[in-house]
Structure formats: C-alpha cells, structure tokens
Amino acid sequence: MLAAAVKALSQILSPPMRSILWRSIGLALVLITVLAIGLQRLLSWFADTGEVWAEGMLGPNFHSTLHVLSWIVSISAGLGVVLGGIFLMPAITSLVASLFVDDVADHVEREHYPADHPGVALPVTLATIEGVKTALLTILVYLVALPFVLFAGAGFIIFFLATAWLLGREYFELAAMRFRSPDDAKAMRKENAATVFTAGLFIAAFVSIPIVNLATPLFGMAFMVHMYKRLSGPRREFEPARRTNVSSV
C-alpha cells in the first residue's frame, strides 16, 4: 500500500499529468471561491437582518451595542467561511475528481499496467452522480460531527475517519467502475472494506494538508487505480465487463 502511495505521488508531478493537475487546481479554486463568496454574503445578510430585527425589538437605545455585535458576527462569519472551506475541501475535491477520473486513470494504466486491458471511460453522467453523492454525504457527515469539535478534539477525529471512509469509497469505486459495473464495483469495495478504508486514510491525510490538498483528485485516483489492480489479482484479463447502469448507494 505504501508503494502504491509513493507511485501515485511521483506520478502526479510527471509531465503527462501536469495539464490535468493545473485544470484540477483551477476548478477547485473556482468552486472554493464561489462557495466562500456565497456563504460570506449569506452570513452577512443574516447579521444585518438580525441587527435590524433586534433594534426593532429592543429600541434605538441599543443601536451602538447591536452594531458592535453585528460587526463581531460579520468578522466571525468571515473566519467561519475560511474554516468551512478547509473542512469542505474533501467535498470539493470529490466533485473535481469525478470530472478527471478517466484522464488520471488512463495515464496510470498506460505507465504501470501496459499489458493489462485498458479501462473503459466512465460516462460523464455516472461519474458526476458519484461525485455529487460523495460530496453531499461528506457535508452531511461533517454537520453531524461538528458539535463534537468542542469535546477535546473528538470532532476532528470523526472528520478524519469520515473523510477516509468517504474518499476511499469514492476513489476506489471510480477506479473499479472502469472495469466493472457499478454493482460489481460496490460489491468489490465491500469485500475489501478494511483495505479500502486503510487506503482512504492516506487520502484523508493528503487532503488535510493545505494547498497540497488541491491535488487530491490526482493523488486519490492514481492511488486507487494501483489498489484496484492489486486487489484484482494477477488474472485481471478476466475482469467482468463493465455495464453502464447506475445503481444506488
């Protein structure tokens, strides 16, 4: 597994991957910027509206106090958006990964597994659906874990473990679906749940590093292509043909 991680790290900076890397980073930055601006404006609107409502309830004598509180809330909202962008990075990279899955996998398969049958490119709709589902699941799990952040860092541990499970699940299934139907890919992931989760810990660690985590879609996909090949065994030429039907989670 460590060897697979090293191979993935070395390849994301190789010349054939640089174009994908820059496109992936560019799209992730756009999504983060749009998210940050949208959240900041929404929270600022709530702060201004709350100030007006509170002044109407308490009277003009509290105007100065309420204005200071609104200013503090606005600053806190800005900081919250920054922290939110950090915590939502796994969700953002899940969406980005769904768009570049085949480009990355093709490079890895050609360089490291030239004798194997190449994978079949995933339909854009299928890959996008998988990315959106993972992003929504990530946000849901993070919202559930958020209250535990106040308890001795338990929330951060939950965040990390949840990220490992979610991203390990997504990247492995995306790699497997190039060779198998969605149902078969999910079944294979469940049969190797412990291994996939452990591999997901590597991706969770990678996505936890600021700036570097912008390359998570490339590292995660390259890494899981290696893991899929390893778990498929030496007789990969008999891999079941992939069907393009979309199955449920």
UniProtKB/TrEMBL annotation:
Q: What is this protein called?
A: Sulfate transporter family protein
Q: Give the originating organism.
A: Bradyrhizobium pachyrhizi
Location within or outside the cell: Membrane
NCBIfam families in the cross-refs:
PRK12768.1 (NF009407)
Q: What is its main location?
A: membrane
Q: How does it sit in the membrane?
A: Multi-pass membrane protein
Annotated membrane-spanning segments are 20-39, 68-89, 139-167, 196-225
The record's InterPro entries line, in alphabetical order, gives:
CysZ/EI24 (IPR059112)
User: Mind listing the UniProt keywords for this protein, alphabetically?
Assistant: Membrane, Transmembrane, Transmembrane helix
